[in-house]
Write a sequence for this structure.
């Protein structure tokens, strides 16, 4: 487990290093940095999950996501999400899942003409981190466990509608989430996650949308 945690940390650090290096090179070259902004999204989240291949079930909960755009749409994002179901796949056992992921993001901005700070922000991202399963049933080699930590990979994107300089609505965000909880078969879960909510924006002075 310590080896896995170290590997995740190195991958996350590499993503941050690459993004920071791009920004530093742009400043050194005197290039136009483009849109620069920090966003905090607070969202309702639902996900279509599975313990094994079938049957599937829905979990509901919420998530927060902190993201930055540092150079020409490139930046990083960190996501924390928590979802729950009382009866997973008609098993009589519930499942609470908490994921923490981090990685690079690219955002494309499309301002509306004559609408001030209104416009669209369309983004895509690839995040990695950890998933923590709670209050459930995990048939591991050491025996049945009720809690388990595993690798998490989250890939997806979404659309924000800017309402003002400091507020947007996240119209939708869709992500594919891969986890590796033990299930006595493949030990792999592929989850479809959808989210929507509010975004608090902190643009750097002088940037547009």
């Amino acid at each position: 487990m310590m080896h896995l945690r170290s590997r995740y940390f190195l991958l996350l650090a590499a993503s941050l290093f690459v993004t920071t290096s791009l920004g530093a090179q742009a400043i050194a070259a005197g290039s136009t940095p483009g849109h620069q902004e920090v966003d905090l999204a607070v969202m309702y989240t639902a996900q279509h999950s599975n313990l094994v291949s079938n049957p599937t079930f829905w979990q509901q909960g919420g998530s927060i996501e902190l993201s930055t755009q540092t150079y020409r749409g490139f930046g990083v994002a960190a996501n924390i999400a928590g979802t729950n179901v009382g009866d997973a796949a008609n098993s009589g056992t519930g499942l609470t899942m908490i994921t923490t992921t981090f990685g690079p993001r690219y955002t494309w901005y499309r301002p509306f003409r004559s609408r001030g700070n209104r416009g669209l922000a369309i983004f895509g991202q690839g995040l990695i981190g950890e998933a923590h399963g709670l209050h459930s049933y995990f048939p591991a080699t050491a025996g049945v466990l009720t809690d388990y930590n595993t690798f998490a990979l989250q890939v997806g994107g979404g659309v924000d509608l800017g309402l003002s300089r400091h507020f947007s609505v996240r119209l939708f965000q869709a992500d594919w989430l891969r986890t590796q909880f033990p299930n006595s078969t493949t030990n792999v879960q592929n989850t479809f996650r959808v989210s929507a909510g509010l975004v608090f924006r902190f643009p750097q002075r002088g940037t547009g949308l």
